[in-house]
Structure formats: C-alpha cells, structure tokens
Amino acid sequence: MTTNRPRLLRNYFDQEIASYQVLKESRENTAYLSDKLSKWISRTRQSWKSLDKKGVTIPVDFLKPYPFPKEEFLPNNFDAIVNTSQRIFEMVQPKYQLRAHNVLREFDRCLTLFPEVLDSAKPYDILELSSGGCGGAEVAKHFGNTYQATDFLDGRGSVYAPIHNALNLPVIGFDGSKTPYAFDDNSYDIVACFQAIDAYGYEEHYETFIDEMLRIARKKVVLVFNPGLRAKHDKIENGYELLIRDPLIKRYNGLNFQKCPSTGMPAVTICPDDQV
C-alpha cells in the first residue's frame, strides 16, 4: 500500500494546463502546444500508475512544474519560423516540457533497469549520455547519487538549457558519434544511454560506442534502444534482433535483456566485469 495521492497528480496537471493557456493567450501561434498536451498528460498518468502499482512512493517534488514560464522553451526566433516541424526542432519537444513526464518516466526506468541507485544508503556516480530532459538527474540526486549530464552543445547549443538552468545542472558537451569519448577509464559507476545510441551511428557501429561505455563504467552500462538507422533505411524486418541483439550476444558476456517500462523499447544491461 502506497501513500501516493491522485489529487497531487491532478493538481500538477491543472498547473501545467493553466501555464499553457497563459502561453496560448499571449502567443497565438503556440496553440498547437496546448493541443498536444492531452497525449503527454496521459503518458505521465501511465507512469504514475505503473509506479503506484509497484508499491513505490512518489516524492512530492516529482509532481511540480518547472519553475519558469513556458515561453522560455521557445527559441528566440520562434515567431519567424513558419513551419511547425521546424519550430519543434528548434525547441524542447512538447513531451519534455512536462517535468513529471520526464521524472516519472526515468523513475520507472531506474526501478526496472538499475534499481540499486534508489538505495540512498549506497550512492553511485552516474553518467548519462545524451541526457535530454534530464529527468534522470532529478531521480538520481533525490536518492543521493551524483549525476553528470551530457548533451550535444555544438552550434546552437542545447535546446534543454532552460531545464539545465532551472535544475542548476552542469552539462558536458558530448557527441556520441566521435570516439574515443572524453572520459577516463572506470570514471563512473554506471553509464546510461537511453534511446540515443541510434543518433550516434548505424547499428554496425554500436559495438564501438558500447566498448567506450564499458571502458568508462566501473559497474554497469544501461541502454534503451530505438529502432536503428540501418533497419529503418533498408526496411529490414526484425531489425532489432538481426542488427542489434544478435551481434551483442556474440560480442558481450552476461547480457541482461529487458523491456523499458515507460516506452516498451528493448533494453539491456551489461557489466564490465563480465567481459574479462
């Protein structure tokens, strides 16, 4: 039996809806953001229910909006961008603008893929590659872990800067396609990469990227996969099994394949010690 109160979740949703209404009234061309809100509220509710069913107490701080107006998510040239898809590219995706969506999703991932970080008595040093909305940072720090965020900062910089600033979160610039990665051997307990490795290159290059993660990690590498570029480009059926899972099985020992609870995407954990 948990002490989670649905009323707190409803109050959070009411605050988010009100914030987008304020944005819509001041900037008419942002109406499409309000239209997308119901989908991500539903996803957030699913994460809340998943955690509640598992008997997990959800911290009250995980159900608070970001402490800045939604307008800060808009790029400086927002009004000059006519194409809606280009607007989305230039800013934080709508789903990542909801703080509880970010945090509860990562909370559920931690609970399933590396629950050891939720034990405040045993803190871990965590490196997340391509941190995105940084929900993982809030979960990690709440339970006493240290957390290093990374993001692609070249050119225009990170669209997630409003979140980084609000969380007072230092971010290391990172381009996952360029190896070797600029981290020392065995410098973090856990290296996580969630639905980002496909942005680094084709499936045939994954082992190069994972080797780097294993070099950096002392205890564990945690990955969640998106559909790979090669499988999508060449329209390969069973692309995950043929191009990702099976090659990993041949290359690495002690693989623990799972499913990400928040996205349903395939996941795996790999321990460096098993590769000796």
From TrEMBL:
Protein name: Methyltransferase family protein
